Request: fold
Amino acid sequence: MSAASGKNGAVTSRFQDPLEDETCRRFVLPALEQADWQEDQIHPQYPMTRGPHPRARRHPQERPLKADYVLSSSDGQPIAVIEAKRSRKDPANGFEQVKRYARLLDVPFAYTTNGHRQVTQWGSAFYVSDTSAGAAVG
Reply:
């Protein structure tokens, strides 16, 4: 798998959806910068392990999981995970995926966005908001 760093440290690969990459580039990164997240706190294409799989011997998992972004505190501790979706898709459709990532990373915040709307989990509360007016993710 080939990967290259793009503007603002965004990592693209030939397997990543180019339309999701556009959401990251056009909406997520600018929103994070506007919210004063520092470059060393934004971790693109963050790899995760799935944990034990009951049928791992018979059906090995070929690709590792990767969150589009993980945000960390100033001491490097992961605190939030962000999953970008194509701009025409409802971000709620990716929320189960980002909640799973948040559980795997044991972080309290999970976001999924298509650049126009975002779905947020904060603890056990869920919020849906319009981001078209430039509302920041995170």
User: Anything to note?
Assistant: The first strand starts at residue 3 and ends at 5. The CA atoms of residues 8 and 93 lie 27 Å apart. Helices lie at 18-34, 95-105.
